[in-house]
Amino acid sequence: MNYLHNNLSRLRKYHNMTQADAAERLGIARSRYAGWESGAAEPSINMLINLRDMYKVGFNVMLVMELTPLSDDELDRLMKP
């Protein structure tokens, strides 16, 4: 199962960013980023790399794990060193 859209929302909130903040850091429109969070669209491979770097998590965490129920402490342990 792909948890990307839910995980993007969780990771963004964990990093205390709005959708506008995240979109600005990625150099895209907020509506495009919002589409990823809603599941209406999927980011390109290049954008997945940018998201991975921005949120400091591995692809397996971003795509495969369900992050929504995790506490911030649990999420801290999954972050890249």
What is the oligomer described by this structure?
single chain
Are there runs of 5+ residues with pLDDT below 50, and where?
none
Number of helices: 6
Q: Roughly how many Å apart are the termini?
A: 26 Å
- As a whole number of angstroms, the C-alpha radius of gyration is 12 Å
Average pLDDT, rounded to a whole number, is 93
Shape: globular
How would a textbook summarize the main sheet? none
What's the number of extended β-strand segments?
0
Strand content: under 5%
CATH class division = Mainly Alpha
Number of domains as seen in the coordinates: 1
By CATH, the architecture is named Orthogonal Bundle
* Proportion of helical residues: 55-70%
CATH H-level name... which superfamily? Answer: lambda repressor-like DNA-binding domains
CATH topology descriptor: 434 Repressor (Amino-terminal Domain)
Topology as a string of helices (H) and strands (E): HHHHHH
Given helix and strand content, the structural type is mainly alpha
Would you kindly provide a written description of the structure presented here, covering whatever features stand out?
With 81 residues, the protein is an all-alpha fold. It has a single domain, classed as Orthogonal Bundle (434 Repressor (Amino-terminal Domain)). The protein has six helices and no strands. α2 crosses α3. It is globular and about 30 Å long. The model has no long low-confidence stretch (mean pLDDT 93).
